[in-house]
Design goal:
By secondary structure, the protein is mainly alpha-helical. It has one domain. Helix content is 73%, strand content 0%. It has 14 helices and no strands. The longest helix has 31 residues. The protein starts with a helix and ends in a 10-residue tail after the last helix.
Length: 319
């Protein structure tokens, strides 16, 4: 299937943002609150995944499930298994094999990927049952959103099914956007983009000043979270027509899943190395930017090597 450049670009932006956040976590003493920008990057990735689920032709559930297993489930088991032990050794933590195996099998080793897998499976099954009926899809999305906030959150839930409910909502949003893209394009004007950007900045200032608590995806203040999310998605889909393309960002987006699995290990390795050679953060901005460049470069090299020599573990063909 032919690549969609703006999709790869936005995926690339999402993964670079997540890598940026992990750089802050591992390298800086204090990092920017999760909800200021990382939550939006994750939401955008789910939204794009939903966009790609829309197809004018007949939906084939078996084909979709095979795709999810090949491109997400199998890489999840392979990468989380390969990464688990080295991360513990580098951190010099006690190795609990039972805990490692249980976390992987229960979908706890990578909450984002686990939620994406379950969310896409739920959405695909519902698409088959409803035959793409928007009213039914909308009803289920609302029920899932309400359920997500009513049930006490448990970070150890099996296969992150609670976060998958919210992921379903964003998948649904991307699907609907694709189906009615021409109508949404009517607000694709610079004046609207400026207004949306202003609103989003004000929201972020309010969130920061009030130190709102968060969990994996959502801000616990529901109305504000919804305004934040809607503003962000409408803004980014209007701005994409004005943002210059960048090949390396598009390449990152095309190979984003592998980048995500490396988003913890690469920052950890580089940060520990720089600390050993006396280049810890110490409030020097240039050191932080250098660290991010090194981490992004290392993640890119590892990703290229994986796709070049062992692409089978990614569910993709060779570069």
């Amino acid at each position: 299937m032919e690549r969609i450049q703006w999709i790869d670009f936005l995926r690339g932006i999402s993964m670079i943002t997540i890598l940026f956040f992990h750089t802050e976590v591992y390298y800086k003493e204090n990092h920017t609150p999760y909800y200021i920008y990382t939550t939006n990057a994750i939401i955008l990735f789910y939204f794009i995944s939903g966009y790609l689920l829309y197809n004018n032709s007949r939906f084939k559930l078996k084909k979709r499930i095979i795709s999810i297993v090949r491109s997400l489930l199998i890489p999840y088991f392979i990468f989380t298994t390969l990464i688990a032990l080295p991360k513990l050794l580098i951190r010099q933590l006690d190795i609990n094999w039972t805990e490692i195996v249980v976390n992987i099998l229960m979908g706890r080793a990578s909450w984002f990927i686990a939620a994406l897998i379950v969310g896409k499976l739920l959405f695909s099954i519902l698409l088959k049952i409803s035959r793409g009926n928007i009213l039914l899809l909308s009803t289920v999305a609302i029920i899932f959103l309400i359920t997500y906030y009513l049930i006490p959150f448990n970070q150890y839930n099996i296969w992150q099914w609670q976060d998958a409910l919210l992921a379903f909502v964003f998948l649904y949003s991307g699907y609907v956007y694709h189906q009615y893209k021409q109508k949404f394009q009517t607000i694709n004007k610079p004046i609207y983009s400026l207004l949306l950007l202003t609103i989003l900045i004000l929201i972020k200032i309010y969130e920061y000043n009030n130190n709102l608590s968060t969990r994996n995806i959502a801000i616990t203040n529901v109305p504000l979270f919804l305004v934040d999310t809607i503003t962000w998605l409408v803004l980014i889909t209007t701005l994409i027509n004005y943002i210059p393309r960048c090949k390396i960002i598009e390449w990152t987006g095309e190979h984003s899943i592998v980048y995500y699995f490396l988003a913890g290990g690469c920052p950890l390795i580089v940060s520990l190395f720089l600390d050993k050679v006396g280049l810890d953060y110490d409030e020097y901005l240039w050191r932080y930017m250098l660290t991010f460049v090194l981490i992004y470069t290392l993640a890119t090299i590892f990703t290229w090597l994986i796709y070049q020599y062992i692409p089978i573990i990614t569910g993709k063909s060779k570069l």
